[in-house]
Design brief:
Elements (H helix, E strand, L loop, with lengths): L13 H10 L13 E5 L11 H19 L3 E5 L1 E2 L3 H14 L4 H4 L1 H15 L2 H8 L10 E2 L3 H16 L3 E11 L4 E3 L4 E16 L6 E6 L10 E4 L13 E4 L4 E7 L11 E4 L5 H10 L25 H14 L3 E14 L7 E10 L2 H12 L4 E3 L2 H11 L4 E2 L1 E2 L9 E4 L5 E3 L15 E3 L3 E2 L1 H5 L2 H4 L8 H6 L2 E7 L3 H16 L4 E7 L2 E2 L16 H8 L1 H10 L7 E2 L2 H27 L26 H22 L3 H25 L10 H17 L4 H11 L25 H23 L8 E7 L3 H7 L1 H8 L1 E7 L8 E4 L4 E5 L2 H29 L2 H6 L2 H30 L4
Parallel strand pairs: 1-2, 3-4, 9-11, 15-23, 22-23, 24-25, 26-27
Antiparallel strand pairs: 5-6, 5-14, 7-8, 7-13, 9-12, 10-11, 14-16, 17-21, 18-19, 18-20, 26-29, 28-29
Length: 895
């Protein structure tokens, strides 16, 4: 067997295994398998994207569940794919073309779409390669794309069915509009941010009088489209103005004073301007009072012909000039600083404009009701529980969904307009004639569907819907969705609505809402903040296993994951610890003249007695009992999505029990030329089981080591990913062995502590006596060799109590341990401790004097004073420890 490298270098083997798993079909599911099914669809990343730390965290958690289920014998499908990301992709390609001097509108739709597909072929698999590299156990033979032929057909089918049921309609409403992306946005695609702004108080002269009404607005440029001012019908201040008009400043247009609840008597002056074409509340008021809707901006947020002298100006420049002109006319009463909420485009960050537009909508109320019932009844479980309330609140107040986008990249709306009769034909296939009058003059709607429309079909369209496929029958409903809270409504809710509507079944049984990854200062990671971390860079530096583990171990439910390179260093050290332990085992095995070995039946192996011994060695009975307990806890933790718990559990077991104690105890029995003894089999079987336990969390290092360990096992699974995950076995539980090893560890630990206190040479063997009236006597006698080797003590064991003043000693409830240290060494230690104590007492006195000096306290900065107090506390704690050590020396009876 080729020896392990001296230095743990994951970069040498991680890319190999990432590709090997795929090439060997390790993660492929079978639609005709009789095994229990467990399926999951990947939240499809944007084709424009690259892996960020949030992706890696989400995929690491998901991969733990999928690998665990696969090892449990499930027919496991993790279906991967990508989203065409309409707005984002069109932006990227437009920017790319602009750098080449090409404008989208100059080359036309068909040519532009050719460029998009070329871009997708060139750059679209970047994130796929990254997902493969981090070891996500996806079935890439089933990879899908939201614009592939099958999903395009599914989108048309869904649109037609909803249209035929009256759940999709076309109407003219006030929608969110992005002047940069030049498209409508849904409410969810509009990000609301708090910003510092102003509140302008404007005077509107009352027609035929010297009176004026003062309105307050955060958007003076929209006043050009005012068609009324409103007062509350119960506001006595303005009752005398009911039915009158005001003159709209700058436009010299008379507009009515209306009474409407939109005006709040307690806010500002109680008077509001009504601009139906530029504000959602005003739009509703305009409908109630049959007001004109005057649009004063074009699609790029420049003032249009209805803006009079301000036509052609950018909205913010128009604002500046309008305010200046109102001030010159004496119609600007005052300007206040004001904290306002601004809607911005989720994709490009541009300030969104409300805009009247004819768009396609989905009636969501009829779809939301069964979607709420599915969660209420438990058909879908949302974890953690707190997100159920958020889900219900949003679904209860859901509004119709604007699904049309003024883009070229995406699923084109399957609606055709007849130039002859004006009717609309909605069809699954492109019609040659109008379905109403038979005219051949039909033209398809130029808009495309919101990306989330096709994504809402993802759990079943990827499995072949609307056809009745084997995959759809086998893997739908899917089992789990692991995702972030930020797309609970964008995507999760829409999948539930569409799944129930089109299949009659829920799209998944469980939704696990994971935490958010933050930086070391607990800030959200973002490119604009400059704290984003490229997971591929850190994976290359520290190893993918270490990055995955560091993310998962900090992911307690209800808390965010704090990411820092310091933590990565710690888990890189953990991987290194495993590597070094394996290297030591393999080298020792080679010296023993034995080949790597593992049991043919991994789950049924029982530790064996060596030679003619009647009983299995204590350390073997102990480690298998501990492995058994860890297996029980690991299975339960993963099933309950408590990924951080299984990470903590395995970390402490492998580092502190398997490596620090079991391997150290076993090495005492290693003999050159021994061959493959029962004791070697116990060790190798325990190591193999440990690798299986750890595999879902750290797949690369475990696969590398497992393949080396099991190379000669006949009929073994071709990959650790297909080996059985360890399960609890009552026959392996051995509480007596666990208690005895804990006592043994206490004896060795106490001896090491005493040696450290006395600063004894680690290589020097000293004499000692253990006094006990408990089972510690027999344990110490039975493990005298281990105690001598691991603690460098020749131990005498006495069944009884330790005499008073018996020497340098440690007392525990189980035993008293006495070291017989020469008096000269005790005295040298006492002298050294005394000197340390004297120095600390001197420092304490100095700190006390400073803190009692009133003049110093009056002048010194608070931080300096606090620092002195903290140091004083540290000095006093150190003195207390020294006193304790000196008391121990005095009690020893030595002079």
């Amino acid at each position: 067997m080729q020896p392990l490298d001296k230095v743990y270098e994951p970069q040498k083997f991680e890319p190999y295994w990432a590709q090997w798993w795929i090439e060997n079909g390790v993660f492929q599911a079978a639609s005709d398998s009789p095994a229990r099914m467990y399926s999951l669809v990947i939240p499809p990343p944007n084709v424009t994207g690259s892996l960020h730390m949030g992706h890696m965290f989400e995929m690491a958690e998901t991969d733990i569940s999928m690998r665990w289920r696969r090892m449990r014998g499930y027919n496991t499908l993790w279906l991967p794919g990508m989203d065409h990301a309409g707005i984002a992709t069109q932006m990227v390609v437009e920017r790319d073309l602009a750098q080449k001097g090409i404008q989208r509108r100059e080359i036309g739709r068909e040519k532009f779409l050719e460029h998009v597909w070329e871009w997708k072929e060139k750059y679209g698999d970047r994130i796929k390669k990254q997902i493969v590299r981090i070891g996500a156990s996806c079935d890439w033979s089933r990879e899908r794309f939201t614009m592939d032929e099958g999903l395009c057909r599914a989108v048309r089918e869904a649109f037609v069915r909803l249209y035929d049921k009256g759940l999709i309609y076309r109407g003219t409403y006030l929608i969110n509009w992005c002047p940069r992306c030049l498209t409508a946005l849904s409410d969810l695609e509009t990000v609301h941010e708090e910003r510092d702004g102003h509140l302008w108080h404007l005077r509107y002269p009352v027609t035929g009088s010297q009176e004026y009404l003062v309105v307050a607005t955060t958007r003076p440029e929209t006043m050009l489209g005012d068609t009324a001012v409103a007062v509350n019908p119960e506001d006595e201040r303005y009752r005398h103005l009911h039915g009158k008009t005001v003159t709209l400043p700058l436009m010299n247009r008379e507009i009515p004073i209306i009474t409407d609840e939109v005006a709040d008597p307690k806010f500002g002056t109680g008077v509001v301007k009504v601009t139906p074409a530029h504000d959602p509340n005003d739009f509703a008021a305009g409908k109630r009072h049959n007001l004109a809707e005057i649009t004063v901006m074009d699609e790029t947020a420049h003032m249009n012909e209805n803006a009079g002298p301000y036509a052609g100006l950018d909205r913010f420049e128009a604002r500046r000039q309008i305010v200046a002109h109102l001030q010159n006319l004496g119609l600007l009463e005052k300007i206040e600083d004001y904290r306002l909420v601004v809607g911005t485009c989720q994709r490009c960050g541009t300030v969104v404009e409300p805009r009247i537009s004819t768009q396609w909508f989905v009636r969501t109320k009829p779809l939301a009701e069964p979607a709420m019932a599915a969660v209420e009844s438990g058909r879908i479980q949302i974890i953690p529980e707190q997100w159920r309330k958020v889900y219900f609140e949003w679904m209860t107040n859901i509004r119709d969904w604007c699904i049309s986008r003024q883009l070229w990249w995406g699923h084109r709306i399957p609606a055709w307009y007849c130039e002859k009769c004006g009717e609309i034909t909605v069809a699954r296939e492109d019609p040659e004639r109008c379905a109403h009058c038979g005219s051949a003059k039909v033209k398809q709607d130029p808009d495309v569907l919101d990306t989330w429309f096709s994504s809402g079909l993802w759990p079943f369209s990827t499995l072949g819907w609307p056809d009745d496929t084997a995959d759809l029958r086998s893997f739908y409903p899917t089992s789990l969705l692991n995702t972030g809270f930020d797309i609970l409504f964008f995507w999760v809710a829409r999948m539930i609505m569409f799944g129930l509507e089109f299949t009659g079944e829920v799209p998944f049984r469980q939704v696990y809402i994971h935490a958010l990854v933050r930086d070391a200062e607990k800030h959200k990671m973002s490119k604009t903040r400059g704290n984003a971390v490229d997971p591929m860079e850190v994976a290359e530096k520290f190893g993918t296993d270490a990055v995955r583990f560091s993310l998962v171990v900090g992911a307690a439910p209800g808390t965010d994951v704090v990411f820092s390179e310091d933590r990565l260093t710690g888990y890189q050290a953990f991987a290194n610890k495993i590597w070094n332990a394996a290297r030591f085992v393999f080298l020792s095995l080679e010296k023993a003249g034995a080949e790597p070995w593992a049991p043919e039946n991994l789950q049924e192996f029982r530790p064996q007695a060596s030679g003619g011994a009647m009983e299995v060695p204590l350390e073997d009975r102990w480690i298998f009992s501990r492995l058994n307990d860890v297996a029980e806890q690991s299975n339960r933790a993963i099933e309950q999505f408590r990924y951080h718990e299984v990470a903590h559990l395995l970390y402490h077991f492998i580092w502190h029990e398997f490596c620090d104690w079991y391997v150290e105890l076993k090495k005492l029995r290693f003999q050159e030329g021994s061959g493959l003894t029962p004791e070697w089999k116990n060790l190798l079987a325990a190591f193999e089981r440990t690798l299986r336990l750890l595999h879902p969390l750290m797949p690369f290092i475990t696969e590398e080591l497992w393949q080396r360990l099991t190379v000669h096992v006949a009929g073994r699974p071709r990959s650790l990913a297909l080996a059985a995950y360890p399960q609890y076995d009552v026959h392996l539980s051995d509480m007596r062995a666990e208690r005895e090893v804990e006592v043994l560890k206490s004896i060795i630990g106490a001896a090491r502590d005493l040696r450290a206190q006395m600063k004894l040479d680690p290589r020097k063997v000293v004499e000692g006596t253990l006094y006990s009236k408990s089972a510690a006597v027999e344990i110490a006698r039975g493990s005298a060799g281990a105690i001598q080797k691991l603690a460098a003590i020749n131990l005498e064991v006495v069944a009884g109590s330790a005499p008073v003043n018996s020497g340098v000693h440690a007392a525990t409830p189980e035993f008293d341990l006495v070291l017989r240290v020469p008096a000269a060494e005790v005295e040298a230690r006492r002298e050294k401790l005394g000197k340390e104590k004297a120095q600390l007492e001197k420092a304490c006195d100095s700190s006390h004097r400073q803190l009692q000096n009133e003049e110093f306290l009056a002048k010194a900065p608070p931080a300096v004073i606090e620092s002195i107090r903290q140091k004083l506390g540290q000095y006093e704690a150190q003195i207390a420890k020294l006193n304790q050590a000196l008391d121990g020396l005095d009690a020893s009876g030595n002079p």
